[in-house]
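sry for the spam today, last one i promise. C-alpha cells for design, 346 residues
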C-alpha cells in the first residue's frame, strides 16, 4: 500500500493546553495532504514531516497591565474563567506594536486592560514553564478594526511565498512597504525577510494569493535599501531619455501619486483618443489597447478589468491616473532614481 505523507501546521500555543484534537485536511499544490491541527503534538500519530509556522499567534484580552519601571508586562487571556489560562507578554523596545485599524505603529502606553490583542512570537522563543507561561513576543497587534482584515506574520522567500506555504504576495505600486523604523522600501527589499502583512482579500488557491495593503519588514538589516521618493514632479526618464512634462505630478487627497495621462502616454508612444461625452480615454499602441473612464476604478487591459484602488481624476483640465497605472496596466518597468525622477523602461 502506498504511504501518504502528511504535513502539519502546528501552533506551539496548543502544546500548553489539554484541548481535544481538532483536525482540518486540505490538498496541497503538490497533491500531498496538508493537515492543520490543534492538539498537543504527542496526541498525533503517524506524522513524518512537520511544517511549522515561523510565528505563533496567541489572541485574547488584556486582563492585567504591570510596569516595573524597566518594561511593561501584560497578561492576555482567551478564557478568563480559567485561572491558569493566558500568556504573559513582556514588552520591551524590540517588540513591534501595531494597531490593526490604522495599521500604524503605537507605543506601549496605549496598551490598556480590556483591549483585545494578538501576540506573535517566533516558534523558537524561550518561554517560562510557569502557568501562565511568560515570554517576550516579536509583535503585538491591538484589535480595533470593524471591517474584516487579516494579518500574516511569517518569513517569506524571494518569490514572496510564506515559509508555511499558505500565502503568496502579489505586491503592486499601491502596497505600502516599510521597515520597522517607517522607512519606505523597494519591492526587491522584502523578499527573503520576516514580514508583517496586512491584507483583506485573497484567492482560494494553495497557496492563497493576495495583494497586500501594507508590509512591514521586521528585522534590522543593513542591506535593506530605502526606496527614493518621487520629488521631481515635472520630468521623467523614458529609455534613458529625459522628458519634460507639460503637467506636473501631484498627490491626491488619499496621498496617492497621480500622473498626467496624456503626457506620459505620448512619451511612451501611445495614440490617445478622448470621448468627451463618456469621459473616456482610449490608448493604442500597435496591438496594445487600454481605456480609462473618469471617476471609475476600472482599467481595461487585454479585455480584462484591473482595479488600482484609485479612479482617474481631472485636474486643471487634464486627466490623471494613479502612479500604479504604469506597471499594472501599461506593464512597463518603473523605478525611482536617487534624484527622485520616474524612470520607465519599455
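last one done:
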Amino acid at each position: 500500500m502506498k504511504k501518504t505523507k502528511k504535513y502539519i501546521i502546528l501552533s506551539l500555543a496548543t502544546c500548553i493546553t489539554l484541548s481535544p484534537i481538532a483536525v482540518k485536511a486540505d490538498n496541497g499544490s503538490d497533491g500531498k495532504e496538508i493537515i492543520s491541527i490543534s492538539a498537543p503534538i504527542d496526541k498525533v500519530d503517524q506524522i513524518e514531516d512537520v511544517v511549522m509556522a515561523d510565528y505563533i499567534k496567541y489572541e485574547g484580552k488584556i486582563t492585567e497591565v504591570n510596569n516595573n519601571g524597566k518594561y511593561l508586562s501584560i497578561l492576555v487571556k482567551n478564557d478568563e474563567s480559567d485561572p491558569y489560562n493566558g500568556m504573559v507578554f513582556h514588552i520591551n523596545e524590540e517588540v513591534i506594536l501595531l494597531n490593526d485599524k490604522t495599521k500604524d505603529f503605537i507605543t506601549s502606553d496605549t496598551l490598556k486592560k480590556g483591549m483585545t490583542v494578538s501576540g506573535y512570537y517566533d516558534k523558537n522563543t524561550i518561554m517560562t514553564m510557569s502557568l501562565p507561561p511568560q515570554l517576550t513576543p516579536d509583535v503585538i497587534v491591538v484589535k480595533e478594526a470593524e471591517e474584516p482584515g487579516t494579518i500574516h506574520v511569517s518569513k517569506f522567500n524571494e518569490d514572496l511565498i510564506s515559509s508555511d506555504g499558505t500565502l503568496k504576495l502579489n505586491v503592486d505600486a499601491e502596497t505600502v512597504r516599510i521597515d520597522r523604523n517607517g522607512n519606505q522600501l523597494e519591492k526587491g527589499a522584502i523578499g527573503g525577510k520576516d514580514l508583517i502583512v496586512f491584507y483583506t482579500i485573497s484567492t482560494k488557491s494553495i497557496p492563497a494569493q493576495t495583494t497586500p495593503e501594507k508590509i512591514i519588514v521586521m528585522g534590522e538589516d543593513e542591506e535593506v535599501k530605502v526606496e527614493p521618493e518621487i520629488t521631481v514632479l515635472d520630468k521623467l526618464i523614458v529609455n534613458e531619455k529625459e522628458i519634460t512634462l507639460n503637467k506636473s505630478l501631484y498627490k491626491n487627497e488619499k496621498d496617492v501619486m497621480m500622473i498626467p495621462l496624456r503626457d506620459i502616454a505620448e512619451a511612451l508612444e501611445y495614440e490617445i483618443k478622448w470621448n468627451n461625452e463618456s469621459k473616456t480615454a482610449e490608448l493604442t499602441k500597435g496591438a496594445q489597447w487600454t481605456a480609462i473612464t473618469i471617476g471609475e476604478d476600472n482599467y481595461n487591459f487585454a479585455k480584462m478589468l484591473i482595479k488600482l484602488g484609485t479612479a482617474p481624476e481631472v485636474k486643471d483640465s487634464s486627466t490623471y491616473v494613479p502612479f500604479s497605472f504604469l506597471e499594472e496596466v501599461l506593464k512597463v518597468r518603473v523605478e525611482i532614481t536617487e534624484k527622485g525622477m520616474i524612470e520607465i523602461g519599455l
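Confidence is low (pLDDT under 50) at residues 1-50. ok im logging off now
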